[in-house]
Amino acid sequence: MGVLEHWSVDFYDFTVPDQLRNDPDVLRFGRLHERAARNGARHGTPVILSPSGRPDHRVNLFFREGKMAASEPGTWRRYAYTLIVWFDFLDAIGRSWDDATVRDVEAFKDWRLTDLRNEERIRATSFDTDRAGLNSFYSWASKRYGIFNPVPTVHAGSADENDVASGHGYARRRRDPLRPAGSTRRQVKWLLRSALEQWRNIGLRGYGFDGVRRPGWRGFNEDRDCAFVDGLYGTGLRVREWASVLDVELPPSGGERMGEAWLAEKCIKGAEEGRTYWIPRRVLQSVEGYADPLEGSRAEAIRRAQRAGRYERLRGIRIVTGHNPRTRELQVEGTEGPAAMALDVLAPDERRLLFRRTPQGLEPLWLWLSVSGLPKKVYSWEDTFDAANKRIAEKWVRAADPNGDLSVEERERVRRECRLWATPHMCRHSFALKWFSILSLVEERRLEGFTAEEIEDFRDQLGDIWLQMSILLGHKHPDTSREHYLEPFTGLQVSYLMALLDDDEQAGVDALVRVFARHGGSTIAPVAASAAARSVRGGRGGSR
């Protein structure tokens, strides 16, 4: 068995053929996927390998029993990557994971966040995932194997009488010693619509900061990526939710401004039931362009996959013969004839295996496809955003240094200072901002004619707006919308918000965003190419 340079992780994919199904040495132990399933693995279960190329069965058992076995594949991925980074760090300092100390964890935190020798430092909020993953792993290992948990953690029940906040009755918990100072509050960031369009044009469509498209640009997935980003911004859905929709679940783009759609229960984070959401007409038109059977890239990707026979090689596919939008059910082929299957019970990985028969061959119901024609995996959209951000940062450097006069270090500094970037969740935050502004305007107009005292009484009931926001965002409780997405708004007077929206709604929303940015959030606005050059001059001139 070969020796690896670092710890590594792979994930079981039960939807593709077993790559070692014909290896006689492997067949002595039975079919790989069948054996893995008997040992507790599911589709998406991680397999972590040490640098020797061998697995540590204790580590991999963590993902196959107890609470972690019932977690979502997305949680497995995040924690698995946390563990291999942690194990690599321990190898570098000559320590085994089952012999780690509190000091090792604190050194790991320092290395991840502040150590200048680490070129891949992360934000404080990102370290929260590391902290949660390590604590979960060692809490399990301490019970399973009696291994010491080196992760310093304040438990929920650790508050005492002296920690009770005066006048509110809430326990003010002592700070978790491993939690970074920067993670006490969510880093809320918004994109103006103009900034989103600039980010999309440069990062996904091959344009430069000067508004000119680069000669020779070949955007194979341009229509797909633009439709996806427009959908995130226009619907406020999470990546997992918008990435998991089927083509039969979307309404046509008609005369109405907003189309109504149903989000299946199994696609929603921690949901107990599905919910309604709304899709702007412009988003539906963008999706229809991508899915156009003659000109869209989706049909072209399907034809490539059909010619290569890729769909027939997938394991566990289900053939769909019909769809009932009223009952939200699919008709699928079964061993004993057609069977009804509720869309609400289908998780993303099951949805990727739904196909229909056409004269040209099998065709996926999964809306978003990769270049190969196979259903694009949910987590791979993060790579799409990362690639777009890198493309934008590179063009930012070119705009700042068109003649290549800067040193490598200076170019890297300019790249880091690029002011135009985006993440999938920023689209959701921006959606929340827009609708809070609109709902505030509606609420203010409802108050016309009331006395000052009546208006004050009504504002005591302003939770109505937060309730509507929670419905739009799919939150179980309005407090989640208020505290985690729109907390900077709570310190501003509603009348002040309205003054920004009375004359022109769009201009008012943009102005409102900039005001909120000064009250605890960050706003990404469009930037000009000349700003890149100014950043170079500012950097050479000393402090900024």
Number of helices: 22
Residues in helices, as a percent range: 40-55%
Estimated share of beta-strand residues? 5-15%
Category by helix and strand content = alpha+beta
Mean pLDDT: 81
The description of the largest β-sheet is: 5 strands, mixed
- Work out the number of β strands: 11
- Span between N and C termini? 53 Å
Using the alpha-carbon principal axes, give the shape. Answer: globular
Low-confidence stretches: 154-175, 493-505
> What value does the Rg take, in angstroms?
26 Å
Kindly report the spatial arrangement of strands forming the biggest sheet: 8-7-6-9-10
Give a summary of the structure in a few sentences.
The protein has 544 residues and is of the alpha+beta class. The chain is built from 22 helices and eleven strands.
